[in-house]
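It is worth pausing here to work through a concrete case rather than discussing structure prediction in the abstract. The textbook approach is simple: state the sequence, then state the predicted structure, then interpret. We follow exactly that order.
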Amino acid sequence: MKLENTQTQVEKEKISQLIKETIHGGLRQRIVDEVRDMCEVTRIREIARRAVAELKEALKGLVPDEYLNEALSGFPEDLVYFAAVGLEGAVDKAFELAVLGVDEKVDMVRHGFLRIPEVLKSTLLPEEVKKALWEWWEWYNERFVLSAGAFLRNDGLRVCVTYNTARLFILCTEWCVGRRRDDCREECENHMGLDHVARRTTKRLQEILDEYGVKHGTTDLTLGNTKYVCVDIALEKSS
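Step two, the predicted structure:
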């Protein structure tokens, strides 16, 4: 088991290294350049000049023209500069989220996390468990986008709704900081939006299992950056 864990960790590190080499081997810069071309620097400057003209009109007679001209002369180029810096930051953040997503899926595969349609094909599932799970999956799949799946074992089935905590934190802090909010780190560390959704959906699964008379319990797991909110299902029907 120890050797197996070592091998899978090496495979994960190889995947991570390949992702980094691909991104920094030219992909990142190509995207930055292509998106920057779409932004049209001349268009940004024109927008900035109109903004300067509006500011000058609003301050007309309150500040001498020569001072106004001097104070606002750098605005167009400053806007171009900050747009470029912001664009590079946006590309970096997008790649960071993409890498987190790949890392999450690699972890899922390593730990044997199966999609619900795969689990439903298993011959290990008693009929009442399969019916309950199918009813829940039809309800869930129409309404929610969080990943849902299961760990299948001989003695039971662990059905989980999952989300990437690191990805959620990055998205929350970027949104929060961008709106000049205070205490963004604390607010986002306590952000429970997706956790609420996950628990709502697993509660619905428990209700369906009760209707079919199937024993179950609850478990929370964290593997890497991925939070799993789970329902443990006994494979023997309750009496």
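Step three, interpretation. Residues 2-39 form the longest helix (38 residues). The chain has a mean pLDDT of 86.
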